[in-house]
Write a structure and sequence with these properties.
This protein is α+β, with helices and mostly antiparallel strands. It is built from three helices and six strands, in the order ααβββββαβ. The protein folds into two domains: 69 residues; 54 residues, no CATH class. α1 packs antiparallel against α2.
């Protein structure tokens, strides 16, 4: 069973998770940039009939892509170890499992939101986000991981 957070627990973890998700978003962008450069070099090689073009540039891009991929994997593993779930790396969307009236739901946070202010059902996703209100606060609870 995964960990289930109270709002207070998730809020205390948010600065750490926020740093990790920012790092993951940055590394994903670096990886994509390096991959695009590699594809461009590959296209140039194809257009020139197999002639090698700027080998050092291609090796540097490959090294950057691989380094960014390793860093991204590490950042995502660290987030996963907290019990949070990365839902969308493009926008930095993270869910914190919790219980509301006995059913699993998610506290939902998006990169650059100042705090966790929304929740949604497991099958609702981002489009189903609802503001955290007093009813939610009175009827949700966390559970340590087992």
């Amino acid at each position: 069973m995964s960990r289930r957070f109270t709002l207070a627990e998730a809020g205390r973890l948010l600065p750490h998770v926020g740093r990790l998700i920012r790092e993951a978003v940055r590394l994903k962008a670096e990886m994509a940039e390096a991959e695009a450069l590699l594809q461009g070099v590959s296209h140039q090689i194809t257009l020139s009939g197999g002639m090698v073009v700027d080998r050092s540039r291609a090796l540097e891009a490959r090294s950057q892509r691989d380094s960014s991929a390793r860093g991204l994997k590490s950042a995502l593993e660290k987030i996963e170890q907290t019990g949070c779930v990365v839902k969308d790396l493009d926008v930095g969307l993270v869910d914190f499992p919790t219980l509301f009236r006995g059913s699993e739901v998610y506290l939902c946070w998006k990169l650059d939101e100042p705090a966790i202010r929304f929740w949604h059902g497991v099958d609702e996703g981002f489009a189903g986000r609802k503001p955290i209100d007093q009813e939610f606060l009175d009827n949700h609870r966390g559970e340590p991981a087992k």
